[in-house]
Automatic annotation (TrEMBL):
It comes from Pseudoalteromonas luteoviolacea S4060-1. This is Phytanoyl-CoA dioxygenase. One of its GO terms (molecular function) is iron ion binding. Its cofactor is Fe(2+). It comes from the Bacteria.
């Protein structure tokens, strides 16, 4: 795994994210993709399909059902990175691979992540971090993540914008997300801070705050846009509810 730049923590705290090219080697990416292809061939809990096309949208919690992904989720460099950012011992709260299939992978509306972990899982503080590994070339056509830089500083107060009393976990990971950011809030944030699209190549690393406003569009390209996301939480901040399956709400 590649070396992390010295000032990444300042950048993370300042902008709400940082990225690094070629964190994984080509061989490491190929190995992940190989195991992912095998994993997708069998039915597993936590698999979610796109509503329109029926294509697989994402796999959740592959580390619970597959030894390769279990080992990956325990990779010492990755866990150490999460612990350095959070400044305390962590556990894996969520592990998903968003598959965003060629021509059919659907959007993720504007949202921030922490509201889900707070409302659904009873996680008290935003002491979590998302670590993303790119598995494919990601360009403007394939529905890259789009961030509003600096938005992690103001979103805590806007967090709950859903009109749902109860919703099943499937909606929390669908193209019609349970908790979406209010368009007025998004407009104000964009006029202040602009947007930054997160394009990249297989093996690139992206780390972002659970309070950062983000979205992504449909994949209109002839290539898949697969992205692996590991979310770590501080052990001191463990969930107090068990509403959702373990593949969405891990435990220390
Ligand atoms: O895969 C994407 O483009 C977006 C993922 C995302 O926003 C999320 O998992 O919260």
């Amino acid at each position: 795994m590649g070396n992390i730049k010295a000032d990444y923590k300042e950048e993370y705290n300042y902008k709400g994210y940082f990225s690094l090219q070629s964190y994984l080697s080509k061989e490491q990416v190929a190995q992940i993709v190989y195991h992912l292809d095998l994993y997708e061939k069998e039915p597993h809990e936590g698999m979610v399909r796109e509503v329109k096309s029926g294509e697989l949208r994402a796999v959740h919690g592959p580390h619970l059902y597959d030894s390769f992904f279990k080992e990956l989720s325990q990779n010492r460099d990755i866990v150490a990175l999460a612990e350095e950012i959070l400044g305390e011992p962590c556990y894996l709260h969520q592990f998903k691979i968003n598959l965003k299939r060629r021509f059919s992978g659907e959007q993720w509306p504007w949202h921030e992540d922490f509201v889900y972990w707070h409302e659904k899982d009873g996680v008290k503080a935003p002491k979590l971090v998302n670590i993303v590994l790119f598995l494919d070339n990601t360009d403007m056509l394939s529905g890259p993540l789009c961030f509003i830089p600096f938005s992690h500083n103001s979103l805590w107060s806007y967090a709950s914008s859903a009109n749902v009393e109860e919703s099943d976990w499937m909606r929390d990971v669908s193209a019609d997300l349970t908790y979406q950011l209010d368009t007025e809030v998004v407009s104000k944030l964009i006029s202040k801070h602009g947007t930054e699209f997160q394009m990249g190549s297989p093996g690139d690393l992206l780390v972002f705050s659970p309070l950062l406003a983000h979205c992504s569009g449909n994949n209109m390209s002839p290539h898949h846009r697969r992205m692996l996301i590991l979310t770590f939480n501080a052990i001191s901040n463990a969930p107090s509810k068990q509403n959702r399956p373990e593949f969405l709400c891990g435990r220390p």
